[in-house]
Amino acid sequence: MSNVSLSFGKIISVITITWLLSLITTLAIISMAPGLFPVYRAANSVGSTQVLDGSITTVKLADDSITIIKVSDGAIATSKLGDGSVTTDKITNGAIVTAKFAERSATALLSRPSSPTGP
What we know:
The protein is mainly α. It has helices at residues 8-32, 106-111. It has one domain (8-111).
């Protein structure tokens, strides 16, 4: 048996290098094969990668599950607004300007100076 003497500094260096190589190998395996390490989720839940485009339907949405915070500006088109869904109390003062009224609308007629022969 040979008489090998290792200093404490060399032992620490070997341990550090071994640990770093092990860490690099582990990270490489995780990044190359993520399926080997499943992501744990709560029961009956899925992540966005498991949800296919168009797979969430109206029937699957719970009542009140979509909040105003989740609706983007301009996301609701006029064709999607039901009759009577925009009421006076929902329109802020000054939101509708005179230019938006049709030529023969009541407001346009009322804002015009009256003429002796009528509108």
